[in-house]
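seq/struct pair 1
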Amino acid sequence: MISALLIFSQLAISTPPRADLILTNARIYTVNDGHPIAGALAVRDGLVQFVGSEREALAFRGPKTRIVDGGGHVVIPGMVDAHAHLLNLGFTLRQVSLVGTKSYDEVVARVVARAREVPAGQWIEGRGWDQNQWGDTRFPTHDALSRAVPGHPVVLTRVDGHALLANAAAMRAAGVGAGTRDPEGGRIERTASGEPTGVFVDRAKGLVERVVPPPSKEEARRATLEAIKEANRWGLAGVHDAGESRQTIDLFEELARAGTFDLRVYVMVADDSAAVAHYFARGPQSALYGGKLWIRSIKLYADGALGSRGAALLDPYSDDPKNSGLLLSTPAHLRDVATRALRAGFQVNTHAIGDRGNRIVLDAYEAALTDVPTADHRFRVEHAQVLHHDDIPRFAKLGVIPSMQTVHQTSDMYWAPNRLGYARTLGAYAWRSLLQTGAIVPNGSDFPVEAVNPLLSFHSAVSREDASNWPPGGWFPGERMTREEALKSMTVWPAYAAFQESVTGSLSVGKYADFVVLDRDIMTVPPEEILGTQVLATYIAGKAVFVRTADSAPRITAR
């Protein structure tokens, strides 16, 4: 009897639980420093069961195990965009796209084309214009748009989301005129006579947006699902959603509860007093609905954006000497919310782009941490785009994470020196300087401000060149990341920045089996070839949520 029990015990030890899926024939960059490269992995119950050689992985094969032949391709952990706007992406996919327009005339032409498709009087929305890409880089006025589309109210959001252009019909609907005052934290661009030109910056946007018909819940649901599908297509397994309303978060929860939410979303609660009070009372929520949703951070705003001259600068803009930007929140408000968040166990992530905006946020965080000393708070500054050299070391000293979007550098480098002057440009998009102090830099895109493709940010991080590989050698190349750092900036560093490092960020045993199959090796190909990479498949918890085509994707066979 004892002998039989001993044999049974030995069999139990030598027979591991059978895997649901085994990935073989791949070059796997695990982003696990203890085992950086592997040839195979096994998945069970949505978690990584084993990482190592193919021979070892196949020891976990059972009669129902699916074998994924990686075709010799590269596999990396599921990429995470550490700063994006999920619902906005969904709505943008349905609006008039103004991305890439080279003139105001082209913007107007695209709106005219949409106006032919919709009934008179129906609102038309668009997004993506950037006057810095036109021959005339001044803000446009509404006149040409109003003449071309008189029968529809039109609102067109600038690429950065911090300014909009409204036509005459939209301004009439909003009751905006020469007598309308600039709101605190906002600016109405005006003619010499005081009439609105049609451009509304930062909080002034709300003067027009308040009369735009809101989307229905069903429209928001469809937009969310479309945005998730688009994210999966580009190899994203997760996003940090930088500011959503309680209504939107409720929708996310509803979709995740129903099992239709194929993305891991670390959602930040938008700065609304009622919503913040609600979530503080509820308490931090992590890994809800099978690890699809986290609700434990608050999104604040310090200033506007550099492209629309709303970023708050310590000294005036070099190309607009009477303007130093806009503060969207008072220092007292930033400190108050940060202090209450520390007491409630919440993280605070504050948008700050200008050097004055960043300094005010760091000061507010330091004051809050003095009031409520807290270890491992992981407060973040979203963008940290233009920094005074005295403030760069403060991030690591305070334990504050600079959450940056490297692709912004390659989008802005053509005109940023005109805004800032040479001296301030040395502290702009300075991720190497921050890394050298001991900080980490979670990477993102800020989509729909930039394209969803996370490899654009990877390429920008390692080359500081645009998609056409300009300028040769990179713009201020001393600020480049290594490829290993760039991969971490899209995997383990976002995981840490979202308190997720124990469950995601690397292909390690016990973590979620989120991974991406690529058709080329982004860690070794020449930099100019990185952006030719295609995502062949995206897996979340061992489930394929995107497969490119039958002939180019990894072969999936059961054997």
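seq/struct pair 2
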Amino acid sequence: MTVKAGAPVGLDPDPDAWPVLVTGAGGFVGGHVARALAGAGHRVRGLARRSVDERPGDPPIEWIRGDLADPSLRRRALEGVRGVIHSAAWVSLGRDPRGLSRAVNVTATQRLLDDARNAGAERFILTSTLHTLAAGTAERPADEDDLWNLHCVDSPYSRSKREAEDLIRAAGGEGFATVVLCPGMVLGPRDPKPTSTLLVRTMARHRLVMVPGGGIPIVDASVVALAHRRALIRGDSGARYAVVGPYLSYEELARLVGRAAGRPRRVVNVPDFLERPLKATAEALNRLRLTTEFSGPTVAGGFLRLHVSGARADRQFGLVHPPALDTIRRTLGFDRIGTAGTARRRGRLDPESYNI
């Protein structure tokens, strides 16, 4: 699905030679990464804070449950692994009154990084975010070398991820390589919270949706998983790579959801001039402590045209992106054909995936 036939030799690591620890393996992105590695034959140790959604047919994963802040758990998790994929993170564009963004995304990452090096790991891969990069234009999308310019969505989360990236990228040395991957809006099945699939699932529930004028590159979860696997042996140490598929405006995204699910049937654009009053409302609610998730950066993100190029990652890791409509259908639990109605009638709807 995501790899061209006859892909260049040397893209994929030898699974017998690369036992891997995946943190955040009970979550959406980490879960896809862990299952893809295990399915390819790697010995995978998955670290998760809570219970894991294991299903019949899933490849074998050695599970460790606990908190990255526990030094003894980190040492046990790292024992005997050659690669570390660090997907665990605190994620929110809202306020962070408890300081979790830095505690989880920076302090815990630094400790895991130090322990991994001391344990003899050879490769450390950080799952990051597009919010550490820059926004370009439709004519000239930003790449990994452009200076950060996303002040409108600056938040404790994005600041902590930028700091974590700096730690990781500076840590490479003799016998220890580090790589940062910055995925776009990841879509796919089995998003337990849900996280990045929440917008698509919400759109599919309503006949009418109102969307701001921004947009973002989406990326299929299977492509993200493949990029992480290939980063075990490819990618320059200290480099970061934007792992993104096609850019979609939120209007385009909503219309594709409508094609896949039968809803929404009507899409209305929120004009750009409403961004400032909506941000002011969100910030007032934050000051009154009536919300933490609905924030100024959250509103600004909806109006942000986040044009980013994934050409460097596509070349380095041999990535091929499926059509956006196919990705959305899989996210909602449909196969490649039919609308929501025909899928239900013919029994092709996965009720566990279509959790909206």
